[in-house]
Amino acid sequence: MPQLGLLHRRAWAALLGQLLRPPRVMCLGAARSHSQVAEAVLASQLKPHQEKSNFILKTPKGTRDFSPQQMAVREKILDTIVSCFKRHGAKGLDTPAFELKEMLTEKYGEDSGLIYDLKDQGGELLSLRYDLTVPFARYMAMNKLKKMKRYHVGKVWRRESPTIVQGRYREFCQCDFDIAGDFDPMIPDAECLKIICEILTGLQLGDFLIKVNDRRILDGMFAICGVPESKFRAICSSIDKLDKISWKDVRHEMVTEKGLAPEVADRIGDYVQCHGGLSLVEQMFQDPRLSQSKQALEGLGDLKLLFEYLTLFGIAEKICFDLSLARGLDYYTGVIYEAVLLQTPAPAEEEPLNVGSVAAGGRYDGLVGMFNPKGHKVPCVGLSIGVERIFSIVEQRMKTFGEKIRTTETQVFVATPQKNFLQERLKLIAELWDAGIKAELLYKNNPKLLTQLHYCENMGIPLVVIIGEQELKEGVIKLRSVATREEVAIKRENIVAEIQKRLFES
C-alpha cells in the first residue's frame, strides 16, 4: 500500500470532498477523482526512482556482453563443435528457454536449488532451463520417440555464485550431443568419447584427459563400504567435489555435514583415490569387496567393453578410469565421463588458467521414463561441451600472444578514387552481392581513396575493386590485393569470375 503522506494534498482533498457529497453527486465525479488519486500514487512511486543518483549501467551479475571480436571467436568455436556433431549424423533440435517447473524438479539432486524460478505469468509455474538434457528427455517422451541422435546449442541458467575467471556464469551456452535408443552396449558411449576427443583436438587447447567411471560402480562401492542407500546421492555429490577440494575436506563434509560414519568414509577413501586404465578395471574385478556387488560387476563389465572400442577408435590413451569421478546430477545411471585439460596454454610468468572440466556427460537410461505416464524407458547417452570455459582459455591465449581476429567476413571492398561515382559503386556492389560475394563500401558519396584503403587494411579485407573515370571509359575494373598492393585491370564483364577464382584459390 502506498504511503499516504506522499500523496498530493489536493488529491486527498478531492477524494474527501467526494465522500462528503450526497451519493448521487459523488457518482458523477467519481471517475475523475479516482483518476487523480491514481496519478498521485503513481507519481509518488516513480519519484524516488527518478531521483536516484547512484544508478550503475551494468549487466546482471553472472552475465556478460560479447563484443564483435569475441563473437567472431565464439562462432569459430561453435562451428568446430557443430560440424563435428553433424559429421557424426546428429540432427538439430531446440526447446523453449523455460519449462514447466514440475518438469525440472527432482532431476538435479542437490543442484535443484540453483534453478531460476519465474514469476507466475498466467497460471503456470515456470523455470528457466538448467541444462539441455532434461528438456530433451521431455521432448522424447512428449513426442513418443524411441530413438534419436540430436545436437542442441542454447543458453541455460543457473542461480549460483559466478566465477568469471574460471568461465563460470549464471547465463551460459551449452553444446549437447545425445544418442537415444536401445542399442548394443557401449557402442554409442564410445562414440560420445570419440566426439569429445575430436572436438578438443580440433580446438587445439593442448593436452587433455577424459576421466570415466560408472554410476553402478559408485553405488556398489557405497553399498559394500556401508553407506545407507538413502545417503547414496548425497555422498555422490560430495565425491564429485574431489576435483576442486582435497580428500580431507570431502571426508570432513561427508562425516560432519552428511552424518556418515568415519570408518565408512575411510573405506570410500581407499577406492576414490584410485585411477588408471584397463588394468585398473581388471584389478577391480578381483577386488574381494567390490566383486561382491552385482551392480559394480555390471559397471566394470561395461567399462571393459568400452575400453575395447576406445582402443579400436585409437583414443584409449586419452581415457582414464577414475573412481573419484561422480557427476553429481541425479539422472545418470551408467557410464559417466569428464574431460579436463592437463595444462592450459599460458606464458611463463603467468599461472595456467584453471577452468575445471571442459566437457562431460554420461548415460541416463531412466530420464525419459520419468516423463512417461507408463514409465516406458528410452536408453540415452550424451555429452556437453563447456563452451564458456573453452572461450575463456582461447580468449586468454589470444590476449597473451597478441592474436588478432577479423570481426567480419568481407571478401571484397568496392572503392573509387573520384567524386560522384556512388551510382557506379552501387551497381557494382549489387552485382557482387547477387553472385554471393561478401562485399562492402563506405556509406559516403565522395570518400577519399586513402580512407577506403586504410579501412580494408584495418578490417583485413583481402581484395579491393576500384572504379573511376578511366576504368569506366576503358570498360575495366582494377582489382587490388590488399596484402601485396598489386593491381591488375580486369574486363568489366569478367570481374565476378576473376574474384571468385581468387577466393577459391586463397
Low-pLDDT ranges: 1-8, 22-35
Proportion of residues in β-strands: 15-25%
- Helix/strand-derived class? alpha+beta
Q: Based on the structure, what is the oligomeric state of the protein chains?
A: single chain
**CATH architecture title of the largest domain:** 2-Layer Sandwich
State the domain count. 2
Which superfamily, in CATH terms, is the homologous superfamily of the largest domain? Bira Bifunctional Protein, Domain 2
The side-by-side strand order for the widest beta sheet comes to: 1-4-5-11-10-9-6-8-7
What is the residue-averaged pLDDT? 87
Outline: elongated
The total of helices stands at 18
Describe, in short, the structure shown.
Helix content is 43%, strand content 16%.
